Amino acid sequence: MLRNSASDVPRRRGRPPAGGREAILAAALELLRERGIARVTAREVAALAGVSEASVFYHYKDRAGLLRAVFEQGLQPLKELAESVARAGPDLHQVLVRYAITLEQFLDQALPVMAAAQSDVALRDAMAEYMTEQDLGPHRGVAALGDFLAAEQAAGRVRAEVDPHATAMLFVGACYTRAAQRQMPAHVAELPSLEEVIDAFEALLAPA
Amino acid sequence: MLRNSASDVPRRRGRPPAGGREAILAAALELLRERGIARVTAREVAALAGVSEASVFYHYKDRAGLLRAVFEQGLQPLKELAESVARAGPDLHQVLVRYAITLEQFLDQALPVMAAAQSDVALRDAMAEYMTEQDLGPHRGVAALGDFLAAEQAAGRVRAEVDPHATAMLFVGACYTRAAQRQMPAHVAELPSLEEVIDAFEALLAPA
DNA sequence: GTCTATAGGTTGATAGAC
DNA sequence: GTCTATCAACCTATAGAC
Predict the structure, then answer these.
(1) How many domains does chain B have?
(2) Does the structure show a pLDDT above 90 at B135?
């Protein structure tokens, strides 16, 4: 599925890597998202990646090793979040839009992976350890947005009574909830749209 | 563990139920929350419930049937949420406190169950169907709080520019995020406390 | 690095006695 | 309703050849 065909990079000595390792990881992530972690077995991963079962164990030692790699890959894009706020223009509205879209996109990818880690204590602990090491978590997003709001407040563009970080929490929470609802395949009733949430949030912040 | 001792209800025909069914359900829910769905095997459930493995299949037909029962049990308390808002006093602050606490308590119980359902497509679909039937989901909480805010607004106790439902979404989201973070065993950094969030939210709503 | 073959262990589910 | 005993299916992981 994702195996390399002949590419144009300069030849190296020895047998070229066939890309099996990457194909296995990609297959595992795809299976995890589409069919749930219970289906991430060496057999199914190998079949989807187009390699043998033994190859899975050769590259990742055991199932836990494979899943750990899947987690790290799945949580990767979070690191771009803080930068996204910094990169955006000085306009509050622009920042909120960019921030919300980036956060929800990340969550759409990461939530299935995080939910999967809850399926077993060992996995849960492994991911917790990883998130602690890397200092990942919602507090990151809250801090980034909170700092920005504090700066806006200092510039007089946000009401003085506002608590920047507690307020950032409200906004992050709305994005989180929307993303979480999207994970449930059958959500009949709609939540407020992103535009409505952003508009409502801005209206609350605006100085009189 | 939860087996009946002699009770005072009038005698029925035939062999009285020994309480095995309830013990099995309770054991499955406990295992699910504490060790993850992967450990919810007939063997472990039976051991914890103090019954035989065959008994599990007798009462719930198959694994899917047992897990479906666990979901229904785990999502039960949600129905009390809307009532909780209605029951609370007329004071905005009181309502927010009561609402947030009720919602977070519910989520602490329900989130592990919802995450577990993501572990396999079949379970995921089964729970989605159940939630659709029962019209469960975050929109319920948003609607309940939004309606209340709209009433407060009509009474002049909330700023006129506020969009009640989009704003309710912000508040629900903050509770959701706090509860979700609690699910991750190792959250080093703190999020804003419930008091801070409630105070910030009230400050945003207050008329000038 | 990748394969085939297989060991060794769990699991879901059924049969049949009590 | 509950038990013991059992089985086929499936899983992780290793050994050893290429």
Answers:
(1) 2
(2) no
Cβ–Cβ gap A197/B112 under 8 Å: no
What is the model's pTM?
Answer: 0.88
**A2 burial level (CB within 10 Å; 0-12, 13-18, 19+):** middle
Closest CA to B192 of A150, A172, A169: A169
Whether residue B126 is found in the same domain as residue B57? no
Query: H or E segment at B74?
Result: helix B63-75
Per the domain annotation, does A44 fall within a domain? yes
B124 and B52 in a single domain? The answer is no
Answer whether A188's CB lies under 8 Å from B128's CB.
no
**Interchain contact B57–A (C-beta under 8 A):** no
Q: How far apart are CA A207 and CA B117, in angstroms?
A: 45
**A164-183 and B164-183 helices cross at what angle (nearest 10)?**
80
Distance from residue B154's CA to nucleotide C5's C1', rounded to whole Å: 75
The whole domain housing B100 covers 76-205
Strand C bases near protein CB (under 7 Å) are 1-6, 10-16
Higher pLDDT, A184 or B150: B150
Residue B1's H or E segment, with its range, is none
Which among A96, A196, A166, A203 is positioned nearest to B208, based on CA atoms? A203
Q: Let me know if residue B25 belongs to a domain.
A: yes
* pLDDT per position as a tens digit, A69-127: 999 998 877 767 767 776 766 789 999 999 999 999 999 999 999 999 999 999 999 89
A69 and A167 Cβ atoms separated by less than 8 Å: no
B207 phi and psi, to 5 degrees? Answer: -65, 150
- Judgement on whether residues B57 and B130 belong to the same structural domain of the protein: no
Contact criterion met (CB below 8 Å) for B144 and B82: yes
CB count, 10 Å around CB of A34? 10
Element (H, E) at A146: helix A138-154
Q: Does A189 contact B135 at a Cβ distance shorter than 8 Å?
A: yes
Q: Is the pLDDT of residue A16 over 90?
A: no
B55 and B113 together in one domain: no
